[in-house]
Amino acid sequence: MQSTPESRRDVFRRIAQRPHANWPVYDATPLYERDSPDGLASDIRTVSQAWFKHDAHDSVEEFAYALPLAYFRLDAHDRYARSTRYEMDTLFRMFVLKELHGWEHETALLEYLESHPELCERLGLDRVPDQSTLWRSWHMRFTDDLRKTAQKAARTILIKAQNAGVTVPREPEQSLPRRDDDTDESDPDNELILDKAGTITNHVSRFVFPAFSLNRGEGCEIHENAFWGLQTYLGLRENLAANEGARSFVHETTRERTPLGHAHRDHIRELSIEQIREMYRQAVQQLLDEIAETAEFFRAGIVAIDITEANPFTGNRAGHEEEIIGTKENSDEYAYQWATVQLVGNAVPLVLDARPVQKGESRKEIVEDLLDSAEDLVHVDNVLMDREFDSQHVLEMISQRGLSYVVPKRMQTSERAQAKRLLQRDQDRYETDRKLHLGKNEWHETTLIYRRREDSEHDDHRQYSVFMTNCGSGHLTEYGYRWEIESGYKSIKRFMAATTSKDFGLRFFYFAFACLLYSIWRAVDLLVQVELTGEYEHSPIVTADNTLTLLKKETGIG
């Protein structure tokens, strides 16, 4: 079906309404010039994702004619100085069409165009070019970068179309193209892993870091990447604060000018919590756009929401009681608390969003906020949470969204009595429906599942755990995926810079940036695994330290 002005308008309106869409990227981020092939690839990815969700768009060929080329300077990739019969945009669309079908030679493309005159008209061709003209255009007129962009664009279009249920002329490759076609390693060695990781880290960091901005204005002598370089450097060293880190950074960086520790902190303090969160979400969107073209990503659907806390605060918290709140344990200690929503299960474990927790906020507010972010970024099916979120109002809100949940329940009198009866019967599992009162004669219907822990240290009713779910007992096994959050938090806290400052924004920025470094690591590991083995296993083959070391090179440390 051919697109119409109305259908195209609907697509671009949808893109404009997406909270994390950067289109066209040349105006939206400082990363790309208008002749950047990576910028063109990003635009094609953004538009194709929305294009094939429209009911009127059911043809990949149609999209080849609608490629968003208006903002891209194709002439910068034209090696011919003389005037030619065929324009670069027409040739680029033709070669994308060739790549969509997977034709190895120009002859197949020519035969196809000759037998479909309406397609030639759409391309603006009054005459189909001969085979030699096409061969020269591809091999001699196009730059290497433009050829690679055409191939990447075709693969992106095929994947986005296939995901939307549109018929495609061929199956897209689900792994990144190899740089070395002779590589056939079922168990890649460390040198090969590091080589691939270095290439991919370079690629990923060029997309992600521009999402962060200090809004310092023009004419600054110190490049903004130097600030992110210093922040990454602080993540490389345990318990390293900004002042000490800035002094060491001077000796390890290749940059001529670097920020002082107090200047670094001052700029970050000027960022609001919402600015930090928005920049974080944009950076994660860039990561997701990269890994979304692997088959492994599309197994996403389970998210876990949890709250972690910083080390107990031992100073004077006067004036900061709303921010330095009690710990989750029943104690007299205080700590900063941060909430996150993460992908878990078979998907790559990325932190989709993070937010601070302040005194007086309800668990429902926190969960609703994080789910809003998660559902803007990925498709969510199931929500896993800890027992501190076992409020009936939280569960009702999740159900109203059409999502399923699994949450452990704190044992009250009735649950303890039931667990004791199960123990007497030597029964390992029990399931029952329960209505939870919402107020005003409204109820939330859920299912309670009692399960005996095989390795319990107790010999009484405490052997049993109680879970609440609205999706049946079959989903209970998924709750085991929550352990990924706890192991993830350990790595995230390892990436955090040290500070004694009480500034809430600075504290949150350090946590959010550590979440970003963690997410970059896991995304790089997925892409390396897929490229080297064609598969993805949860156990990383790229270490966190290796990723940070590679990142520091991209931000100017060495």
TrEMBL record:
Which GO molecular function annotations are given, in alphabetical order?
DNA binding; transposase activity
Which regions form coiled coils?
Answer: none
InterPro entries membership: RNaseH-like_sf, Transposase_11, Transposase_InsH_N
Q: Which residues does the UniProt record annotate as the domain Transposase IS4-like?
A: 350-500
Basic and acidic residues compositional bias, start-end:
170-181
Q: Does the keyword Acetylation apply?
A: no
Q: Name one Pfam family in it.
A: DUF772
Q: What are the start and end residues of every segment in region (Disordered)?
A: 164-191
Lineage, top-rank taxon, reads Archaea
Q: Where is the composition biased (Acidic residues)?
A: 182-191
Protein keywords: Plasmid
Q: Where is the Transposase InsH N-terminal domain?
A: 57-136
The answer to keyword Repressor applying to this record is no
Q: What is this protein called?
A: Transposase
